[in-house]
């Protein structure tokens, strides 16, 4: 246990789960998309769906998509700032299933350059969050460490190539998770690392013929 666990995050808003956690979920969704958001459909599940206006969850989620921190004093004005930035959004109440955490949101995002992504995550208390699905792949990461997210063909040796490159560059993998849609099809690998992954490493992984996409996500 650390001091953060005792006193909670520095934030704007009444609830660490519904505001600070919501901002961090927006931050991670923005980072996964990899470009400024043009349009966002924000699906709210459980407690998020029932109390999002009263707890400021709606303002916090939009603030996160703008790239703001949980303690940003502009959070109460995030809707107006989103309009100025050209970010269109709408909130939808949704049932994401019995297994979903009560504070769960699914973002359906379109970027300013046309990139699209669907990200599901939950605020699990004290400002902590977890991402559980990216573009239909079941994943699990918190954003508390640097994250390397790769999409590749599900073939032998791909994981070894990537992890060997990281090891040769002095990057330690703290946690890793693999997900695939079908044997031999597309797969996603999530690696949380103790060190920052440099631009050179990202470029080298991107150049591998088996890799179709690489996304680096800094600590949220």
Give a structural overview:
The protein is of the alpha+beta class and 220 residues long. The chain folds into two domains: 19-135, D-3-phosphoglycerate dehydrogenase, domain 3 (60s Ribosomal Protein L30, Chain: A, 2-Layer Sandwich), CATH 3.30.1330.90; 146-217, 2-Layer Sandwich (Alpha-Beta Plaits), CATH 3.30.70.260. It is built from seven helices and ten strands. The protein has a six-stranded mixed β-sheet. The relative contact order is 0.16.
Record keyword descriptors for this entry.
220 residues, globular, four-stranded antiparallel beta sheet, alpha+beta, 10 strands, Alpha-Beta Plaits, 2 domains, disordered N terminus, six-stranded mixed beta sheet, 60s Ribosomal Protein L30, Chain: A
Biggest sheet record: 6 strands, mixed
Mean pLDDT: 91
H-E string: HHEHHHEEEEEEHEEHE
CATH topology (level 3) name of the largest domain: 60s Ribosomal Protein L30, Chain: A
Number of strand elements: 10
Low-confidence segments: 3-11
What number of structural domains do the residues give? 2
Strand fraction equals: 25-35%
Question: How much helix is in the residues?
Answer: 25-40%
C-alpha geometry: globular
From the coordinates shown, what is the CATH architecture of the largest domain? 2-Layer Sandwich
| Spatial sequence of strands, sheet with the most strands | 2-1-3-4-5-6
Q: Which class do the helix and strand fractions yield?
A: alpha+beta
Catalytic activity: L-serine = pyruvate + NH4(+)
GO molecular function: 4 iron, 4 sulfur cluster binding; L-serine ammonia-lyase activity; metal ion binding
Organism: Dendrosporobacter quercicolus
Pfam families: ACT, SDH_beta
